[in-house]
Amino acid sequence: MKAMLAGFAMIAVVAVGSNLVLNEAGFSSQDQQSGDAVRLDADH
Amino acid sequence: MRALICMVLCLVLAVPAWAQSASDRASTGGAQTLEDILARQKGAQIDDAFRRDATGDPDIAAGITEQLGTLGGVSDPELWRALRYGSADIKVSAGGDVATVLVQDGGMNWLTLRDGPLRSYGGWGLLGTLAALAVFYLLRGRIRIDGDKTGRTVTRFAAIERFGHWLLAGSFILLGLTGLASLFGRVFLVPLLGKSMNAEILAISKWVHNNVAWAFVLGLIMVFVMWVVHNIPNRTDLVWLRQAGGIIGNAHPPARKFNAGQKLIFWSVIVLGGSISVSGVALLFPFELPLFAKTFSVLNDLGLVGLVGMDPLPTSLAPQEEMQLAQMWHAILAFVLMAIILAHIYIGSVGMEGAYDAMGSGEVDEAWAEQHHSIWLEEMRENARKSASSASNPAE
Question: Are B77 and B113 in a shared domain?
């Protein structure tokens, strides 16, 4: 049971981690496919 | 005399045109006819080479100083046809290869395939699998342990093995559910919950699907490394398959750590899961990892396509076409793997007494092990005897 819960916890860690890493590395579609002249992000 | 020659010439030239029957385009000067348009509107297959290939020939262009020389042997309609069929030589200052494709009608085929057959065959396939499992349960019932449990247990899977299994299993279930939500959300969730709730669910689904994918890949690698040695087919598998693994009937065919059924599951997960992962990565990084043109060219070269009586597959694909094929492949394989995994979940839970313990606590009753993995149990006992004897007789 512990191994199962550890496996599930690992899924969450990997998901959050990959999201952070890929966003930081500029791999989002927004970064890749658009330029400064395109207002995609609601924050801007 | 001149008139006679003219008439004869007209007749001679007209014969091949008559032979073309319905596709005779002499009346339109080679342009498409009403029949062509109607056939296209009906969705019938038409040979569009007369338009696709009519894109002018710069080699027969008039010299630059002559009349019409500046057009380079290509008329405006011919240029537009080249744009329409993606054969124009387009140069762009930004956007790469993707931006050089101005018209890509493969998108419509992809959409109709995704909204039609993919949803219906895939959805009914999964429901059919569930129904078949329910019928099997009603007919066969739970596969019980013959006789009493011994009360003695043996370690079937170590903690690291169970961790890898659940990493793979948990991520697969999340990916399956979010993938199904992406495909069916608009059809089933919108009428049920409304568009805005569907949009929220899909936004979350997309995040989960994109990021949990890496956990699946990690789990797949772990499971492959840990279990590949135990999943190489051998002669025992034939006995197991002949007796249908005792799933049908009451036999208890011998098996090592994994029986033939588990080996089939393992290789399905590795091969299908691997291909789903690769096509998934191609979808995560759009246009960066084109897979299909290369694969098609290898298949053509190997002659596999010809073997099944098909025309050679296209080896020159627009970047958008690559993405459409990647999505379709990803989804079809995912449906197949989901159906297989439903059967796996069934037999590992309600379908067989004692099976869940193997992945739950890792400890299985010796009676269960004896009945389902007799050779493996014997090996475990042998190892235990060896380690016990080496412990009582330590090397001098």
Answer: no
